[in-house]
Write a structure and sequence with these properties.
alpha+beta; Methylthioribulose-1-phosphate dehydratase; lyase; 37% helix; Aldolase_II/adducin_N_sf; binds zinc ion; L-fuculose-1-phosphate Aldolase; 211 residues; binds 5-S-methyl-1-O-phosphono-5-thio-D-ribulose; single chain; 9 strands; zinc; methionine biosynthesis
């Protein structure tokens, strides 16, 4: 799958990704070359970060287009090593317009404290309402923790199965690695990152206080 995409939409997406990188780097959630970001540019294409670039200093040269199979379109660069974790979300969820992956200390530490096969369950927090479609603190946001692996095909398949069973959930963790979250557009997706970071900090602080 390759094909064409709208250049104006691509330019807008690339700008949004670069600005997201500056924000996420400044908050300490995307240190060094960690993290990857993407934004949809058509029903079959996404703009995504080139692999190995420092995310706090992104320019247009650090963004490229891939199709929904993860193949580069009109670029000789290597897309993010985790491209398949992005494209599977765009493929399964046509309503999704942006995906962000971050490597914060809190997401990393919390993911290591959750027992294997368990999830982080966020409940009774008012801030859950920052997630799309949530209008009360009374529901549950369940954040699964997938085992870390370098096998992106297998991890993409696992996340796809989970997404099919949990269509309303806004993100997942990878153990000792970081957060994946998505939104209908970049502002919503950034809001989700911020909400997760606040809630992860609350969970860690609660564990610390309880001892
Ligand atoms: C700097 S280690 C982090 C990487 O292994 C990876 O997890 C990551 O988030 C960035 O990979 P990238 O290929 O640049 O998109
Ligand atoms: Zn990563």
């Amino acid at each position: 799958m390759t094909g064409s995409f709208d250049v104006t939409r691509y330019s807008r997406a690339a700008g949004e990704i670069c600005r997201a990188g500056q924000f996420l780097y400044q908050r300490g959630w995307s240190p060094a070359t960690s993290s990857n970001y993407s934004s949809r540019v058509s029903d079959r294409h996404v703009a995504i970060t080139v692999s190995g670039r420092r995310k706090g200093q992104l320019t247009g040269a650090d963004i490229m287009v891939v199709d929904l199979d993860g193949s580069p379109v009109q670029s000789d660069c290597r897309p993010s090593a985790e491209t398949l974790l992005h494209t599977v979300i765009y493929r399964d969820r046509p309503d999704i317009g942006a995906v962000l992956h971050t490597h914060s200390v809190k997401a990393t530490v919390l993911s290591r404290l959750v027992a294997e096969g368990e999830a982080v369950v966020l409940e009774d927090y008012e801030l859950q309402k920052a997630f799309a479609g949530v209008d009360t603190h009374e529901g549950r946001v369940t954040v699964p923790v997938f085992a870390n692996t370098q096998d992106m095909t297998s991890l993409a398949a696992d996340t796809s199965r989970w997404l099919a069973d949990n269509p309303g959930q806004p993100g997942y963790l990878i153990r000792g690695h970081g957060l994946y979250t998505w939104g209908r557009d970049m502002p919503e997706c950034l809001r989700h990152v911020e909400a997760f970071e606040f809630l992860f900090e609350c969970e860690l602080e609660t564990m610390r206080v309880r001892g």
